[in-house]
Amino acid sequence: MVQRFGDQFSTNFFPVLRFEGEIFDCEVKGEIPRDIRGTFYRLGGDWMYPPKSPREVPFSADGYISMFRFSNGRVDYRGRFVRTPRYLANRKAERQLFGTYRNRSTDEPSVRALNGTVANTTPVYHAGRLFATKEDARPFEIDPHTLETRGEWDFHGQYKSLTFTAHPKIDPATGEMICFGFEATGEASKDVFVYFIDKSGHVTREVRLQAPYVSEMHDMAITRTHVVIPVFPLTTDKEWLAAGNTHWYWDERLPGYLCILPRDGTAKDVRWIKGPPHAMGHTLNATTEGNRLVLDGTVSDANPYPFFPQRNGTPWTPQTGGSTIRRWIVDLGSKQDGWEEQRPFPMAPGGLPRIDDRFVTQPYRYGYMGYSDPTRPLDARLAAGRAFPMTNCLGRYDMTSGKLDTLFVGGDGSLQEPCFVPKNSGAAEGEGYLVGVYSNLAENRSELIVVDAQRMQELARVVLPFRIAEQVHGVWAPYEDLPFES
User: Fold this and answer.
1) How many domains are there within the chain?
2) Got the DSSP string for 30-97?
3) Mean pLDDT within 436-441
């Protein structure tokens, strides 16, 4: 029997496409600068088969990785599903075998022993390897040229955690990647394993921690001297999962924490600094100067996800769940809990911030993020039913002056997370371009926007003749960092 997608999925977080393919020398409106040479990788989800429940969350969609390769003012596109064991099992059965989000007891018995990840969150490029990641499993290696799936990767057998964060951080000065896995030893465990991986891709050190409670520790930041992991009360437990629920629920009774680990420290050196139950879902950057640690990111006052339930049964609201860029300042010399919070941009909400990655761990000036501005044109008909608001503006956030420079990108669609592309390796901070896919909902197609990041001026659009799956996150790999194509 042919399975059909219900109408409720036509406006969900991810479109229904089930399409793989490539386009050479894509149509371009405007002119792409010839100094953009490299590949913009993007990862998101698309449903190969309908979920079992219409209430399933969009984070369960099958991983779909795509790329835009730039050379000599031209762009090629390619997109493929990530061949996880879950994807392959569903293809063989020709239907959905997996149940509620990250609750293995709701999967069909025949697949409960399989790796259930969909590998749909963040593409990571490190040590000449491309990975598709999701925080419920180890990463899957992807061929950087063909996008074929090579298989699960355990860093030469040295990575012992069962899970891998969707947001590892790479120190641009050393090439070291720092990452972690939460629920590292199994479902609903409080174990957190932190790893230090050198520029060649080998694990040099492992630190094993116990979190105060099980938390969706989604992102992290690094300074020259510290690792920082925000902890917020999106939590789970075995009783909750045994009842057949989706993996996470928001427990407003729990505090927030910052896990702060010296980069040269051991488990005995970690500090769990307690604060309000606010969720820093994504980080911008962090720095340490003496005892002053500064952490920037997007923060919600409460549950940031409208599709994960509240413990007390209250409805989700954008007033508390929506996020803005905030700065948290920690006095490492104090024995007291808590941190100072600053809100430099209270009127520009958004949740997917980026910086010029060459300035990770260092003092920096600019952040970039798409956001929704209700004072600008926005087609309400096209926005109806989406899990998150449509993004009609791209902002450059000056973290020094508090100034916001804005580019309006369109009212008939939604901009996905932008990525910064430096003009060259020696360019000053912010000297380069922003690239990001705009879902043109009126025309039912996708357009890659290329923006001058200094002038916040649109230069070109790469126009695809169809609409591709919305990404969660993306990464830029310069031409010189890519391995030769075999």
Assistant:
1) 1
2) E---TT--EEEEEEEEE-SS--SSTT--GGGSEEEEEEEEEETTEEEEEEEE---HHHHHHHHHTS--
3) 96
Assess if residue 366 is contained within a domain.
Answer: yes
Distances (CA, A) of 195 to 132, 159, 263, 272, 419: 18, 8, 10, 18, 25
CA atoms within 13 A on the CB side of 419: 25
Q: What is the pLDDT of residues 178-214, one digit of tens each?
A: 999 999 999 999 999 999 999 999 999 999 999 999 9
Residue 392 lies in a domain: yes
Which tokens is 312 given? 């007390």
Q: What is the CATH number of the domain that holds 143?
A: 2.120.10.30
- Locus of tokens 């990641």: 133
Backbone phi and psi for residue 230, each to the nearest 5 degrees, phi listed first:
-70, 140
Q: How far apart are CA 235 and CA 20, in angstroms?
A: 35
- What's the confidence (pLDDT) of residue 384? 78
Whole-angstrom CA distances from 41 to 38, 63, 424, 430 are 10, 13, 18, 20
Statement: residue 34 has pLDDT above 90: yes
Domain, as residue range, for 201:
127-481
Q: How far is CA 271 from the centre of its chain?
A: 25
For residue 215, being part of any structural domain is answered with yes
> How far is 260 from 336, CA to CA, in rounded Å?
14
| Domain contains 1 | no
Strand-strand pairing, 27-30 and 457-463: antiparallel
Q: Is 197 within 8 Å of 155 (Cβ atoms)?
A: yes
What is the arrangement of strands in the sheet containing 271-275, beginning at the earlier edge strand? 221-222, 226-231, 256-262, 271-275
| Residue position matching structure tokens 């609201």 | 317
| Residue with the two structure tokens 């969707």 | 166
The Cα 265–Cα 154 span in angstroms is: 23
- Does residue 12 surpass a pLDDT of 70? no
Of the chain, the end-to-end C-alpha distance in Å amounts to: 41
**What does the pLDDT read at residue 306?**
93
Tell me how far apart the alpha carbons of residues 174 and 197 are, in angstroms, rounded to a whole number. Answer: 11
